[in-house]
Design goal:
- With 616 residues, the chain is α+β, with helices and mostly antiparallel strands.
- Helices cover 27% and strands 21% of the residues.
- It is globular, with a radius of gyration of 26 Å.
- The relative contact order is 0.13.
Length: 616
């Protein structure tokens, strides 16, 4: 591993605050109050792809093997998967059309002898990704393509016999009786209401979202949404489109003022406690890497509807097709401005700089919230807002909200998360390791192939590290997370006495640095070992190490760092530490002493494995 790689401290959690408000069914009926102080989480989704158990895969394969009627083969669409085009034959990462090289792969899948006879108009790209794994003979772009049977037969009747021979095959060929068309969230709701309520959306030229719908004569439910991250924004959008009276509360500032506050932090080290890399319009993800990655089915209609909504508000259309869709902070800022303006046209009352201090509860029901100006630590200017329901979309940094919920005897269930360090390398190093001689084609994000990244993981048993638990060996996962190619390390502290960091990048990923989190899972047993107990023990666990990191850095937002080789050897790095993308200053420190030994040893054990997977 290159000695120019280094570690920086990081805390990482995986919250699950995903409350839902049960909206009325199409048949008008009185609004029912939510159950008293209940935090509702999303239902567990059905496993897909590699997450399926072997028995589930076998059952699915048996279903797929069922032959379809011959007549049905000539209706609808066929979806062709895993069509690999060698990198030297592909126009490049930004091309999403059907090239001659792709037609050859389509012809091969159809067993059609003449690719030049296939009309490109009959095919459309659903997904495109880049595969440069080392066991391949050569890197390639991998496509998923939909074939319009009727259009293909109209343009090239000679393909009839070859379509007749097609049979579904798991992971390679799938028959779709109908084209999978998914609109954006707003269009879906408008269509729903047009069908069930008899309402018709008001259009203005090409903008079908320009005017709000008229809700039926029933009383509008008043809903307060707390937090303007992705969950809060989409909750507000759905509720407003269905006609609710929505108030969106955000403790931070709009992206324009938030950008100025972040600039003051980076340049003059002035931290605004309520407007920073964590708090503000768009949530923590606004000034982050802007990845749009999911494990719930990348081509599913639900995911595509969210993607298309982002495109409606200004995201580039390639996020609908990219294997690893990514926006970048520079694109997120105007997108969020458009999102906000649309919500305001729908009648959403958006209040920035407004912190929720308490819930108003009567007879076991939430009837409102108490708010105050977040720019002041004093609560003399508090105000009460009544509501029928409250959606808490606060994110993991709003730790005061969890304490407030506990004061109301709300049942909170702690969950496992991960802690660790952030590792940084020169991006050219990662490009060279992953792409070899193709590395020159990256061209700082403007070339034919994407900026190189990596993803690694290891399962750690108690035998691999000196575990502290008396009940037996502890099994952990150690993995890379939030890898930011062509990015930079930024400060995500919300308290001057604590220190934590994250990675971010812009759309082109043109920075000369790459960074990723390297984390180890921890559980309630780990919290208890440091005498932290109760529902928010994990939060106190985080804070403990954030305070230690701040002390190691020497204050003033300096980050303690250590070269990877020194971290493995448990020794302090010398004064001549490599440069970093982190702009507020770094200080050589013994990061191997930051965490308990079992976390440090798990990280060290994993690094040696990662060294073989990525660097050799």
């Amino acid at each position: 591993m290159s000695i120019t790689s280094k570690f920086l401290p990081l805390h990482l959690s995986f919250p699950n605050p995903n409350p839902k408000f049960p909206f009325p069914t199409p048949t008008p009926r009185p609004l029912s109050h939510p159950k008293p102080l209940t935090i509702r989480c999303a239902k567990k989704r059905q496993r897909t792809g590699n997450l399926r158990y072997p028995s589930e895969k076998k059952k699915l394969k048996s279903k797929q093997k069922t032959q379809i009627d011959e007549a049905d083969k000539f209706e609808g669409f066929w979806r062709l998967y895993k069509l690999g085009v060698p990198v030297h034959r592909d126009p490049g990462k930004d091309f999403l059309g059907v090239s001659d090289a792709l037609l050859k792969q389509i012809a091969k899948a159809l067993k059609f002898p003449a690719a030049s006879m296939l009309p490109p108009e009959a095919f459309s790209v659903v997904r495109k990704s880049f595969d440069a794994r080392k066991f391949l003979k050569e890197p390639k772009f991998v496509y998923t393509v939909d074939m319009d049977v009727n259009k293909l037969l109209d343009l090239e009747p000679c393909t009839w016999d070859f379509i007749f021979e097609l049979e579904p095959k798991v992971g390679e060929i799938e028959h779709l009786p109908h084209e999978r068309v998914s609109g954006d969230v707003t269009s879906i709701i408008q269509n729903y209401r047009r069908i069930y309520d008899g309402t018709v959306p008001i259009k203005d030229g090409n903008n079908q979202h320009s005017e709000p719908h008229k809700h039926p004569t029933t009383k509008k439910p008043r809903v307060v949404v707390v937090g303007s991250g992705p969950s809060g924004l989409f909750a507000s959008l759905v509720l407003a489109e269905f006609g609710a009276d929505v108030t969106l509360l955000e403790r931070g500032q709009a992206v324009e003022q938030r950008g100025r506050d972040i600039g003051a932090l980076v340049v003059r080290k002035i931290l605004q406690l309520e407007s920073n890399f964590c708090f503000g319009e768009g949530g923590a993800g606004t000034w982050s890497d802007g990845k749009l990655v999911t494990r719930i089915g990348r081509n599913s209609n639900s995911v595509l509807s969210v993607m298309k909504t982002l495109v409606t508000f200004g995201a580039p259309e390639n996020i609908l097709f990219d294997g690893k869709p990514h926006l970048g902070t520079d694109r997120l800022v105007p997108l969020l401005r458009n999102f906000r303006q649309h919500l305001q046209r729908l009648g959403v009352d958006i209040r920035f700089g407004t912190r929720v201090d308490d819930l108003l509860v009567e007879n076991g029901n939430v009837v409102g919230v108490e708010v105050s100006d977040s720019r002041s630590n004093l609560k003399f200017n508090s105000q009460k807002l009544g509501c029928d329901a409250a959606v808490l979309a606060v994110g993991h940094s709003a730790r005061d909200i969890y304490q407030m919920l506990l004061s109301h005897d709300t049942i909170l269930v702690p969950k496992e998360f991960a802690v660790g360090l952030r590792i940084e390398h020169p991006q050219e190093l990662i490009n060279g390791i992953q792409y070899a001689e193709l590395a020159a084609e990256v061209r700082s994000g403007r070339g034919r192939i994407p900026v190189a990244d990596y993803k690694v993981g290891k399962y750690i048993s108690g035998d691999d590290a000196d575990e502290h638990c008396d009940s037996g060996p502890v099994k952990r996962s150690c993995y890379s997370f939030c890898m930011c190619p062509g990015g930079q390390v930024v400060l995500t502290t919300t308290n001057t006495s604590e220190l934590c960091i994250n990675g971010m990048s812009f759309s082109r990923r043109a920075s000369k640095w790459a960074n990723a989190a390297l984390v180890v899972t921890v559980s309630s047993k780990d919290f208890e070992s440091l005498n932290f107990h109760g529902p928010v023990a994990g939060v106190e666990f985080q804070r403990e190490f954030e305070r230690r990191a701040a002390t190691m850095g020497g204050g003033n937002f300096q980050v303690p760092v250590q070269t990877v080789t020194d971290f493995l050897e448990n020794k302090l790095s010398g004064a001549s530490i490599p440069p970093s993308s982190y702009r507020l200053g770094v200080k050589a420190a013994s990061l191997h002493e930051l965490f308990p030994s079992y976390i440090t040893e798990a990280l060290q054990s994993s690094i040696l494995t990662f060294d073989n997977e990525v660097f050799f």
